[in-house]
Specification:
single chain; three-stranded antiparallel β-sheet; two-stranded antiparallel sheet; elongated; binds zinc ion
Length: 77
């Protein structure tokens, strides 16, 4: 059974490999508190300053507000 990263579609042979990859995946470095979605930085911002959840139905916005870097979330946990 293969495990697929839903952000970049890369596949891995084990769940552990996928977990390790998730920490460094360039396609899923941001997480939205409002909807729980993960997405890449370039999906959330065009100017590197104003961040917005790429989900049209979600009103999450603002880095450090609704949108956090996955790494920071892990450190807080
Ligand atoms: Zn990935
Ligand atoms: Zn959202």
């Amino acid at each position: 059974m293969t495990h697929t990263c839903r952000d970049c579609k890369q596949t891995f042979g084990s769940e552990l490999e996928l977990e390790l990859h998730r920490d460094t995946c360039s396609e899923g470095q941001l997480i939205c508190d409002s909807c729980g979605e993960r997405f890449s930085e370039r999906a959330a911002t065009t100017d590197g300053w104003h961040y917005r959840c790429p989900d049209e139905e979600c009103s999450g916005a603002g880095i450090g507000e609704d949108i956090h870097k996955v790494r920071d979330v892990r450190l807080e946990a």
